[in-house]
Amino acid sequence: MPRTRAPAKTTTHTQAAGKKKTGQPKPAKNQRRKQTSPAKTMATRHSTRAKSAYLAHLELMETPPEVFNERREQIEARLLGMGWTKQHIEPSPANADEWDRLLLQPEPISDEIWNDLYPEFQPLLESNKAYNDRVDNRAQRRARIKKLEPLVGNIRTALPPLVRLVRKGSSTATSSTSSPTRDSDIKVEQRFPSICEILTWPIIKSIVDENISPEEVEQKFNEVKDQFEQEVGEWRDRIEQELVDIWNADHKTSGNRGKGKGKGRTTTRTARASVRNARASNSARSGTSTSSSAQLTLPEFVATYSKPDGTTTEDISDLSPNLQLLLRADTMFTNDDFILHRTYPDIVPPAVPLGIVIGGPEELNDGKRWDASKLRRDDEMSAIAKELLARVGRPDATSVEMRAMGVNFMCRRCHQTLTDTWEDLVVHFSTEQSQYKQAQEKIQAEPEHGFVYNNTHGLELDDTRPFAELMTPEAAAEQSFEFSMRPQLIVRCLKCEEMDIESRHSDILIPGRESPIVEHLRDVHGVPEAETMPGVHYRG
User: Fold this and answer.
1) Which of 405, 420, 454 is the last residue of a domain?
2) Which of 128, 193, 314, 384 has the fewest CB atoms within 10 Å, i.e. the most exposed one?
């Protein structure tokens, strides 16, 4: 009957379903909780640690300072009693955090706590000792160097000057465009090694590296003073020889390959030949520039030179051939880096650097070592110097004479607002001529563009335009001050940039004349003053 079958079907279905569920049992709740991901477990641990650290920090913050002081005093007393010194318990920068962690705890020190704590202090103490020993050794060495500096300085200042210049009477300067220099008596010091250089010499290094007192430094230095003075002279001779070798690098003769005394004689002959050739060349050049030499009359000096034997002379030919060559105002050097001076003796780093004046780390006061490896002969600059010197009738002038003119030269070929030294004036003409040559190459390579670049700084024999003006020191200072007080903008010449030439000029309002950038565009590129436009011809 249907009534008896229906329950049977239901029961069968239920049993089947029950069997199916029994085959895949559902996990219990406590089992699911145990299957937490590793990331969540790690996060929980970090949270617990952070909470513990925070609570510990709060406890330290609430601890009275007296508790920390008492613990520190107890620890330091135990360390000092074990033979450690105050230097050893001064933590180094690298150990400061770990040292404070051990020190800044609220618990007082008992014997039991100390037995567990000391092994943690021991490696820090050893590290502190090594660090502070190095610091103390450097400080003591620096103290010995500072004791040495005035002793060396006394020798430097006692040396006679390389050259003394005494200006002749002002009646020699008859041109309205030139005036005597401010100083009538100028002394140029002999080059002297810097402290940085001296510290590499064995006789000095042995003194400053030895663990002796500053008083003993003076005693030991006095013992080697004569030898030191001799080495200073040898150092100076070596520098002069290196510069002459660089100058003659492209003009060596086969005789230079000899050895011993023969090599020295050949080098001397080469230096003498260089001086003779320069004088002959400049004499001829001066003869062809007689008309233009009247452009600029320079003040004259009586020069007195010191000789190695302590005597003096007013005849430069009495000096060594090396020194005669190096003192010429047209013997110029350069390098690949920034170079402040290009002639001797200023090309040699000073014994007393700027750091002595402006302060800073004491090591800066040691100066720089002499390094001739980056220097090379500057033929282009020297050729321009020769031409300019010939134009003023001073073909054999020395670098020290020309430097004595001061920062009082003003270019008459362009529109500078600041005055130059003689050396800077030579650099200025060299830069302008280099840019002109670059422009001519561009014009020849791309004639279709119609580039214009006039030679404003040419030094051809038929170009008799004045090239410079020598102002009085007062007039130069007044002009520099006047221009510095006026608002001005440094702009780029876009006409020059079209020719791949970097050219910057000032845009400044000057009473009675156009802005320097406007004058540059007119004279160099032929752009009329009325047509110059910012953004078209120049840009800031």
Assistant:
1) 405
2) 314
Beta-carbon contacts of residue 142 (< 8 Å; ≥ 6 apart) = 362
Under a CB-based contact definition with an 8 Å cutoff, are residues 440 and 452 in contact? no
Considering only CA atoms, give the Rg of the chain. 41
User: Tens of pLDDT along 132-179?
Assistant: 999 999 999 999 999 999 999 999 999 999 999 999 874 444 343 444
Count of residues making up the chain: 540
H-only helix segments in 289-378: 290-293, 321-326, 355-358
Q: Which domain-ending residue is among 132, 157, 182?
A: 157
Q: Are 384 and 430 in contact (CB under 8 A)?
A: yes
Using one digit for the tens of pLDDT, what is the confidence trace for 287-346?
Answer: 444 444 446 889 999 999 999 999 999 999 999 999 999 999 999 999 878 788 899 999
* Domain housing 391: 159-405
Main-chain phi, psi angles of 464, to 5 degrees:
-100, 15
For residue 15, is it within any domain? Answer: no
Q: How far is CA 349 from CA 31, 149, 352, in A?
A: 82, 17, 9
Q: Could you write out the DSSP letters of every residue in 474-502? A: HHHHHHHHHHHTS-EEEEEEHHHHHTT--
Cα angle 381, 269, 246; round to 5:
35
pTM: 0.74
CA terminus-to-terminus distance, the chain: 110
Token duo for residue 171: 């009646």
In this predicted structure, the answer to whether residue 432 has a pLDDT above a threshold of 50 is yes
Q: How many CA atoms lie within 13 A of 173 on its CB side?
A: 20
Q: Is residue 260 part of a domain?
A: yes
Same domain, 147 and 163: no
